[in-house]
């Protein structure tokens, strides 16, 4: 065949492959939309009866505590704890689905970081082991940030919640530093640490270093997967360094001022 004949055959084949690829992409997008819709509906359907179980268990506990044996109270509390865990899993799965489907919208507003940090510390303080010192060290004159406050709140709560969960003694400290157009927020703990071969895996869905520890302390294995995706959606990054038996530091970096992609 002539040279131009060869080229025509290649061009036709390329066009055929391109059309097939477009078709496959459309099918995958459709499947992904169905998956998201299914998960959204399913989690709604599951959440409603689970909240009923939680509510009624709370009533039974309140009304009968004085009349039933301590063992029965304990059993009711176990029902409550398991149900809370399930609701947490469902909420986290839904969060992850939304993010995977590219449905995270950044709603930016002005924030004084100190106020949000104080609120997060107050939320996790009751969960800290006795004798663990939990505090923040923010530089003076921190400028106001322009961030998605709700998402930053969720990330900080996850990092501080983990620090508290995996630290039996010593210190948990949140620090912030301003870089070139960025803010770096570090959460450092003197907890059990993460083995080097698991340091990246903990950002994957359902990855936990030690499931038995989690059974004792609660957790879904989804928190860090969500936190890293949220950080990236906000134009930032979340990384960790850790030494087994010494402690871990999670560093979140974010643009000081969020602007829509394409915005000056
Ligand atoms: P969860 O805490 O709900 O299990 P995460 O995704 O937040 O899920 O964390 C995944 C795993 O990473 C945890 O189960 C734990 O093994 C490990 N991990 C996270 N934070 C810390 C920390 N500060 N110290 C030690 N291990 C940690």
List the helices and strands and how they pair.
Layout (H helix, E strand, L loop, with lengths): L2 H62 L5 H31 L8 E3 L1 H12 L8 E5 L7 E3 L1 H17 L5 E8 L3 E8 L21 H7 L5 H11 L3 E7 L3 E9 L9
Parallel strand pairs: 2-4
Antiparallel strand pairs: 1-3, 4-5, 5-7, 6-7
Helix pairs in contact: 1-2, 2-6, 3-4, 4-6
Bound molecules: adenosine-5'-diphosphate (ADP).
Structure description:
By secondary structure, this protein is α+β, with helices and mostly antiparallel strands. The protein folds into 2 domains: 95 residues, Helix Hairpins, CATH 1.10.287; 147 residues, 2-Layer Sandwich (Heat Shock Protein 90). Helices cover 53% and strands 16% of the residues. The strands form 2 sheets. Strands 2-4-5-7-6 form a 5-stranded mixed β-sheet, covered by helices on one side. The longest helix has 62 residues. The site of adenosine-5'-diphosphate (ADP) has 23 residues, from α4 and α6.
**Rg measurement, Å:** 24 Å
- Biggest sheet, strands in spatial order? 2-4-5-7-6
What structural category arises from helix and sheet content?
alpha+beta
In terms of per-residue confidence, which ranges show pLDDT below 50 for 5 or more consecutive residues? none
Work out the count of structural domains: 2
CATH architecture of the largest domain: 2-Layer Sandwich
Helix content: 40-55%
CATH T-level fold name of the largest domain? Heat Shock Protein 90
Q: What sequence of helices (H) and strands (E) makes up the elements? A: HHEHEEHEEHHEE
CATH evolutionary superfamily of the largest domain = Histidine kinase-like ATPase, C-terminal domain
Write down how many β-strands occur, each being a DSSP E stretch of 2 or more residues: 7
């Amino acid at each position: 065949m002539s040279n131009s004949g060869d080229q025509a055959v290649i061009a036709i084949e390329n066009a055929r492959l391109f059309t097939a690829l477009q078709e496959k992409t459309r099918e995958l997008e459709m499947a992904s939309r169905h998956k998201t819709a299914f998960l959204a509906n399913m989690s709604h359907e599951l959440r409603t009866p689970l909240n009923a179980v939680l509510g009624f268990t709370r009533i039974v506990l309140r009304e009968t505590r004085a009349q039933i044996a301590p063992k029965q109270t304990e059993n009711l509390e176990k029902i409550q704890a398991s149900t809370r865990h399930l609701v947490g899993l469902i909420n986290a799965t839904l969060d992850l689905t939304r993010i995977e489907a590219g449905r995270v919208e950044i709603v930016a507003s002005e924030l004084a970081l100190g106020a949000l940090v104080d609120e997060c510390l107050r939320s996790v303080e009751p969960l800290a082991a006795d004798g663990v010192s939990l505090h923040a060290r923010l530089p003076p004159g921190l400028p106001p940030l322009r961030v998605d406050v709700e998402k930053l709140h969720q990330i900080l709560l996850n990092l501080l919640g983990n620090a508290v969960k995996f630290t039996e003694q010593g210190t948990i400290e949140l620090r912030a530093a301003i870089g070139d157009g960025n803010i770096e927020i570090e959460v450092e703990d003197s907890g059990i640490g993460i083995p080097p071969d698991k340091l990246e895996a903990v950002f994957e869905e359902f990855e936990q270093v030690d499931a038995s520890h989690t059974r004792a302390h609660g957790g879904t294995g989804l928190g860090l997967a969500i936190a890293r995706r949220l950080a990236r959606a906000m134009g930032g990054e979340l990384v960790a360094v850790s030494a087994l038996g010494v402690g871990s530091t999670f560093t979140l970096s974010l643009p000081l001022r969020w602007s829509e992609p394409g915005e000056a």
